[in-house]
């Protein structure tokens, strides 16, 4: 039986997370944002928090803010608030720096911590900045790792060998949304004495991640996608407690010192993951992230993941039902356990279609050469939103509107 | 003839920068903030910029912000706006990351670029995080530099030799405010084929810095002190153009790639200083910094430095005139060219005095064991503010109020 709008409305009526939609500020027009894989929605509490931050903290306290506010506590506080979304223990997630800097710190630390082997194993589906970080290590480090960039998942699986020091992957592919089986990769890596470094940017806040249960070694992720930390917001890192004392952090800074305000001349690393915190925290960015963290703390991750799965299933079913005969092919695996946070699909005119969708108030994202992505933020998207978005897509494809000259200049 | 309040008011009446005071938001009570060396004042434009950022950019654009706003241009745009404060050319200053991460990137890059020698020469008056970064390099790097931390300026000057690879200094001492002669150090360093790395955190926006004219090699600095970037705001780095193509940056990330949105698999560094930009810029922090950058762009640096010098001279004269007989001794050198952004002075009860000053609405800062600092932000402090602050200090010392039990718990 075909899915219709009424069915979607019924799903919304039964949604245990529906109350969270009001915790995010809606856009003025009825734009449907399906770009949570790129930029998450804004918590409604942010403008007030910023106004109060400006007046009560920056203007009235100035340097006393370090003493009288939570500025210094945020990196760990926010880390603790999002830890349950990735199966991490309290105190093991630190919010700091951007994803690239964290990848660099953690990959270098993992390289220094390696047990055997001389190769970092990855795939070309890893996000470019992840690859650049590894290439930089190969290029700059006096005792450099080899970097093996596999062209396919099969090649990667066949490349595990005694020369493998680190397996370095994005949990979910930023283009196709295809997802690795983290437990299996960790298990295979450990069997050959290799360590694993995961980029969770396209996973945390959308799909189940269980770093502890799946026995990962290290992880890093982006704050501003599913986690709604805000544009350019702080990223995070996680260190398995068994590696917390492996050595000094890659970047030794005062926020990773065991006694920050002693202003000691000699560096002594803080115990645990906190040693990777480098310099002054990104206070304002963290105030914004803390608004999202407040929400995440209240979210039952099992409900979150179930809703995300249901949104993804619905998106795929509707894309096929409504647009399957109009040239749309789904790229993301059907199998739930192989899916990341977004649904990817292709169309021969994906670029112009993406532009026509923007004009129709549906914000997905385009990736060359011919794929589109709908990123699904479970806390603020309704099932009816998915119905509406796919309906607008169908109209564009049916009418051929996307072939209009004005949609041929495509933004990335 | 003794200086009085009327004299200070006359100086204010002649101040060519007096119009800038209104560009910063004043505190509600008449608190005098003398902590620009720790946290600069808030540009009055910030709250509106943030409100518009939240609604018009984050909520309404989401991921399209990358295409339709200046988010990606800010790191270079802000760098260009503050370049004249440090004698830097356009395009050579990049706003990114925090100071510690930038110190790490630049010191490591300098180490890879060294011409000869195996030692990083520094002094224990360098800020702790600067020292930790160097110690981390010594501890972690497979081809590590030796770190020589000199206990005095004389020892440092005597330690220049053929083994010196890098001279690594804070331009102005964070405690005493004593300043290095940058031209002289650069000259001596180059004479022995060493490179220089300067931390300008306590200089830029207060005292003359001329990286190009003084022939420095590298520099890094903090955004949230004199530059008013806001708590935890982005830091900056500068690379002398002759070193811009020395090699790959320490942290290779997508924002330092020559074609960011090509999503290429292979890293190719951007030309120039921009290659050091690592990952996603700290968008929200940069929006705030851009409010300050707008102001800095309008400021004639010669007026700025002249005002800062006059404020510093007045502070020292008044401290002596009003408090010299009450136990206050000035630590900062009298000679203008040896002074950084703040005036340091000591008193046997500096900690409790600092607390009593806070209660009286004067925010300086205390450093163990017995020194106080007044950081002077030339754009928003009047000469009369200095008079008023020193008057309040005199009252506290004369009355012995600072000996009250409630001031004995001292914050740092």
UniProtKB/TrEMBL annotation, chains A, B:
InterPro entries: Kynureninase (IPR010111), PyrdxlP-dep_Trfase (IPR015424), PyrdxlP-dep_Trfase_major (IPR015421), PyrdxlP-dep_Trfase_small (IPR015422). Pfam families: KYNU_C. GO terms for molecular function: kynureninase activity; pyridoxal phosphate binding. One of its GO terms (biological process) is NAD+ biosynthetic process. Keywords: Hydrolase, Pyridine nucleotide biosynthesis, Pyridoxal phosphate. GO terms for cellular component: cytoplasm. PANTHER family: KYNURENINASE (PTHR14084:SF0). This is Uncharacterized protein.
